[in-house]
Amino acid sequence: MMRSILIGILVLMAAGIGWLTFDWYRSHYGGEPFGAPFTLTDQNGQPITEAAFRGQPSAVFFGFTHCPEVCPTTLYELAGWLNTLGDEGKNIRAYFVTVDPERDTPEIMKTYITNFSDRIVGITGEPEKVHAMAKSFGIYWKKVETGDGDYTMDHTASVLLLDSGGDFAGTIAYDESADTAVKKLQNLAKKS
After folding, report:
1. Count of domains in the chain?
2. In Å, how far from its chain's centre is CA 174?
3. Which range of residues forms the domain containing residue 138?
């Protein structure tokens, strides 16, 4: 019973953070390019920059590999949404950016992400550079000690949608219906 209540509270908090994120983006960027330039590392150990978010529409999710529920659920759903789109969404690129670069090395990211899809690219790097990139995208994250010498991460639970120019095009909130998420991705693919 208590676990169900906690999960319910976490889902409501994630949805609230998703809405606040969307509202913040809309009021601050309104279709203008956003996110500072960055140079990080992809899951194959290769450099990746903001140029990856240009030239095709992108779905970008910030999370971490030790996440107990939100991240694996979102990556599983994102992979499913992309599969549902088929050729209609073949131009959409998907990225998973860690907010826990201290633990999420390229190798760990690759192993983790390949459990979900070969269409999602992991991004990590030096902690200060990753955190600067996340901040420039308006992403919330915070390390939370668990009391047993370990920690978890609170973070924004929405998938960011970027058009082919790298401009903000919307979000998919955590626990949003699959039909709505697929429709948003279809619209993103058509506009770009």
Report:
1. 1
2. 10
3. 2-191
Among candidate residues 138, 166, 168, 152, the one with its CA nearest the CA of residue 68: 152
Structure confidence by residue, pLDDT tens digits, 75-130? 999 999 999 999 999 999 999 999 999 999 999 999 999 999 999 999 999 999 99
Cα angle: 11, vertex 16, 19; to 5 degrees: 125
**Residues 40 and 52 sit within 8 Å (Cβ to Cβ):** no
Provide the Cα torsion 103, 107, 113, 115; round to 10°. -110
Q: Between 40 and 22, whose confidence is greater?
A: 40
What's the CA angle centered on 127, arms 37 and 162, to 5 degrees?
40
| pLDDT tens profile 64-83 | 999 999 999 999 999 999 99
The dihedral built from the CA positions of residue 76, 71, 162 and 107, taken in this order, carries a sign that is negative
CA-to-CA distance for 10 and 1, rounded, in angstroms? 14
What is the pLDDT confidence band of residue 35, given thresholds at 50, 70 and 90? confident
H-helix or E-strand spanning residue 162: strand 159-162
- What CATH number corresponds to the domain at position 171? 3.40.30.10
* Crossing angle of the two packed helices 178-191 and 70-85, in degrees rounded to 10: 60
Cβ–Cβ under 8 Å, residues 159 and 74 = yes
Question: Which letter does DSSP use for residue 41 in this model?
Answer: E
